[in-house]
Amino acid sequence: TACGFVEAADSTPPHYITPTDPEIAAAEEARGWNGRLAAFALTAAPATVDLGGRFVDTWSYGGKAVAPELRVTAGDRMQVAVRNELPADTTVHWHGIRIRNDMDGAAPATQAPIGPGTDFGYEFVVPDPGTHWYHSHSGLQADRGLFGALVVEDPNDASGADVDAVLVLDDWVDGLGTTPDAVLMALNPEISGGHAGHGGGAAPMVHTADSLGVAQSFVAGGHGSSEPLGGMTQHIGYPLHLINGRPPNDPEVVTAAPGARVRLRIVNAAAETPYRVAVAGHELTVIAADGFDVVPTTTDTLIVGMAQRYDVLVTLRSGAWPVVAKVEGRDGYASTVLRSTDAAPLPNPDVGGAVPELSGRLLPESALRPAEAVRLDTRSPDRDYRVELIQAGDRYVWGMAGRDAGKLVMRQGERIRITMANTTTMWHPMHTHGHTFAVPDYGGLRRDTVNVLPGTELAVEFDADNPGEWMFHCHNAYHFEAGMTANLRYI
Ligand code: C2O
Ligand code: CU
Asked: Measuring CA to CA, which of 16, 69, 139, 341 is 20 to 30 A from 370?
């Protein structure tokens, strides 16, 4: 179809693209391709998307609120033919993958943007198993709906799961009369540089930050503009929260035999909403964080921050059980249902976002431990950086400051530590491309996105083992676009 997704596995694969940089080529060679190709095609295009009976004009891959899940096996080489039918430049970033630099999808650092009406072929080996996702890395496009789950299965899976289901959590804002890109560009052309607005037709709903965040973030641009955003707030309605693009009253139900071990791969794709997740009548055994195995840890509920993923196992009891993702710290929830095949459907699947497990044992991140196989050895850092996450005055301008911001360089083989000090009143989900952290304060937990909470500091450590130039940024797109970003550069 015109704006569709096809699994192109039978088509003749395009010729392998060798990285032009010899160091990047050597790193790719070392990733150990298993000889299998996993070929897909993605088209980014404007679409009218069904959010469970509410139809919205937005941008999407494949015309859905959540793009199709891409599922491969560790060791495969992915080939993704991307077609851009948007009226704007785009790129696709493969969030969480230890990827070759030139396929990282971060324009202009790693590639030229994919222009309107043109194509780009991504091709890379996926070396590690894990639950990840992919999204546009241009402007605020991910917040319009250009994202989906990317699952890398483990050829030696030892989880014992009988059933595997992905739950993509997402926030949409009702009633925003215009698109975030257009607003941002109008306020500050420098930020969205050249992006055309959505154009054509009313966009009654835009997937983006919550009402506070949007209203605030667009009050000022990131590079000196401080135009008040007249009337913006009054256009903003109530945020809508979805799981796999479905609202609580019309969920996509996950079914399995009674007694089955169900692996839920939870992906938080929201623009700026952390969720507290629980399954009625069940405890959760957490087995992975951002795709890295953890020492299995049991809890009633856990918080999934923006851009983060958790894999949890649930042993399904006979019955139909609400799964709730409650907005952390504010009102609102997404929900779906987990049902055993011997049970009747719930007459009303929307239980109002209330299940007792949400106020049961809450798993702190600091209680998780990395599995032995993914633990980073302890050594003192070769480079010890410190950056501040800042808001400029009382204006909604976000950035990085401090002695090391803007000079994050490293050499191959070095151990890098970055301490982030959040001087603002918001959560900042900090993410690196191409590298993943160990978090000393969380017992060395491995992840690629850490939430730095208001007024706190958090250090992360990683090894410089993937040559290239890489982004390091806050994952709230409107913070990132306003300037809360830096590049990590090999010297
Ligand atoms: Cu998922 Cu640079 O981002
Ligand atoms: Cu931020």
From this structure: 69
